[in-house]
Design brief:
The chain is of the alpha/beta class. It contains 6 helices and 9 strands. Helix 1 packs across helix 6.
Length: 239
């Protein structure tokens, strides 16, 4: 789909956690469609490598920073708008799992997970909203199937239940302003998400590109269309 705008400028998307995995796959697809894209991440070297792999295009902006830090998120939004002149979509993709349970987990790891997975999207919404109202743009939150099903002692799942609720609460707040809100809830995806577990789960996994297809599809919805919840599992994943 060719990006269009009333002022004939390519649309602009900001993606947190965009240096690898789903975020990087979505950035590649959007750039290939002619969008301008800003990606954030805590790993400056990873962002630099990502940009270099793509030939460091002028349409890509890499912004090192913590998705759970208010000043960092506000700076990322401000820099994106200053560089590209507008913001049409904000994608809260940064997140991770501690891969433990409430019985055996490390509370310090939980703290970082809650801040990244729950506070991070809220901060992005807050910082991006004034610009998205101007462009009548879209907020995309990357949740999880774990935010719809219960798992024994799964605290990561609880953070994604929070994202599920955040998406609908945000939609009710912004729909009158012409801003769309889409929750993309993936099942198992082959990404660095599993690095902390030490191995991939059994069974078929989606690729990052396959999941990014749904994310980019949501971003490319016509003005006035609000797709709210998209759950994407690999065939064979029962829950």
């Amino acid at each position: 789909m060719k990006p269009t705008h009333t002022n004939n400028t390519p649309p602009v998307t900001l993606i947190t956690g965009g240096g690898s995995g789903i975020g990087a796959a979505a950035a590649r697809q959007l750039l290939a469609q002619g969008h301008r894209v800003a990606v954030t991440g805590r790993g400056e070297d990873r962002l630099r490598t990502f940009a270099k792999e793509l030939g460091s295009p002028a349409e890509l902006l890499t912004l090192p920073g913590d998705a759970a830090d208010p000043a960092s998120v506000e700076a990322a939004v401000a820099t994106t708008v200053a560089e590209f002149g507008r913001l049409d979509a904000a994608v809260a993709n940064a997140g991770f799992a501690t891969h433990d349970t409430l019985a055996d987990g490390d509370p310090e790891g939980w703290r970082e997970m809650v801040l990244t997975n729950v506070l991070g999207p809220a901060l992005l919404i807050r910082a991006a909203l004034p610009h998205l109202k101007e462009s009548r743009g879209r907020i995309v939150l990357v949740g999880s199937v774990a935010g719809f099903v219960y798992g024994p002692g799964n605290f990561y799942g609880a953070t994604k239940w929070a994202v599920t609720g955040l998406a609908e609460n945000t939609r009710r707040m912004v729909t009158g302003d012409g801003v769309g809100v889409t929750l993309i809830a993936p099942g198992r995806v082959e990404t660095p998400f599993w690095d902390g577990l030490g191995h991939l789960p059994d069974g078929l996994l989606l690729t990052a590109d396959q999941l990014a297809d749904s994310l980019v599809w949501a971003i490319n919805q016509p003005s006035g269309v609000d797709v709210n919840t998209v759950v994407v599992r690999p065939v064979g994943q029962p829950v």
